[in-house]
Amino acid sequence: MSSFFFTAFVLVWPFMAAMVMLVLCVGLFRDIREARRTGEAMV
Fold first, then answer.
1. pLDDT in tens, 1-43
2. How far apart, in whole angstroms, are the C-alpha atoms of residue 9 and residue 14?
3. In this structure, are residues 35 and 41 in contact, taking their beta carbons and an 8 Å threshold?
């Protein structure tokens, strides 16, 4: 049974990590687009 959970963990964590990265990148690109539109500096 423990090998099943280990296999599920190994197969699922890259998907979860990719979803977190996607959320972060979408937020970043929205902020960049908003800053360009309003003429504000990002830094």
1. 789 989 988 999 999 999 999 999 999 999 999 999 999 988 8
2. 9
3. yes
Helix H, strand E, coil C: the string for the chain is: CHHHHHHHHHHHHHHHHHHHHHHHHHHHHHHHHHHHHHCCCCC
Residue 26 CA to residue 43 CA, distance in Å, equals 18
Residue pair 42/35 in contact by the 8 Å Cβ criterion? yes
The pTM is what?
0.70
Cα separation, 25 vs 12, in Å, equals: 20
| Whether the Cβ atoms of residue 20 and residue 9 lie closer than 8 Å to each other | no
